Amino acid sequence: MASALWQFAGSIAAVATLSWLAFRYGFAGRPELQDESEAVRLANEISGGFHPVATLLSVTRTAALLRDGADRLALVAPCGAHFVSRLLSPKSRFQRQADKLKVLDGKLAGEFDIGATGGDWERAFARLR
Question: How much is the pTM?
């Protein structure tokens, strides 16, 4: 009976230690973009030569919406502990409510505060269709 109790206590201690290590080394929570330049760097990795001319970070800094000179749109969003950059297609959806724009592309999503630049982004989405 005493050995089972020690085994149980050891298991609890091991789980607590692993949880603390995961939190300590940044494996908890969603990744955040540091700034627009990080979003641009990630978008530049898209094959086919995507070079952004306009960038919009989400309020929570967990996603970015980018537009290039050819009016193509890209979404940078978290997927697990990393970011995925994807060109938006006509199948991508967006919803606008006042100054908020929600972009959905498969399992990737981002919510943006578009403010005065809303018309530019809406025109880009209209051209995407």
Answer: 0.73
